[in-house]
Design goal:
mainly alpha, 4 helices, about 0% strand
Length: about 100
């Protein structure tokens, strides 16, 4: 796969991901007050876009290294299981925190 094909696939994957859109929508509705000036809101948007781009470039470079990629492909199912356990525990904590 060429660099541009991989870049296009990554951008489309993230742009069409409804979870990312909902995350930023909820984040901004919680943090930004409707009375916040438009220039400040635009600054927040630019900052989040830049931070997200830096994150994904870092992840791509990290997992693009053959040794790391091969190790992750070999052990990735354990990462998935561990994250599943963590998310289940966080969900249970939220459920029990709201109970009287």
């Amino acid at each position: 796969m060429t660099f541009f094909a991989a870049f296009r696939r990554g951008v489309l994957t993230n742009a069409l991901n409804p979870k990312a859109t909902l995350f930023f929508l909820f984040l901004f509705t919680v943090i930004i007050d409707p009375a916040t000036p438009l220039i400040i809101q635009a600054g927040y948007g630019i900052y989040m876009a830049a931070a997200t781009a830096v994150w994904f470039v870092g992840v791509a470079f990290f997992f693009g290294r053959p040794a790391i990629r091969n190790r992750f492909l070999r052990l990735g199912h354990w990462v998935d299981r561990g994250m599943g356990i963590i998310l289940i525990a966080l969900g249970a904590r939220l459920i029990f925190a709201t109970l009287p």
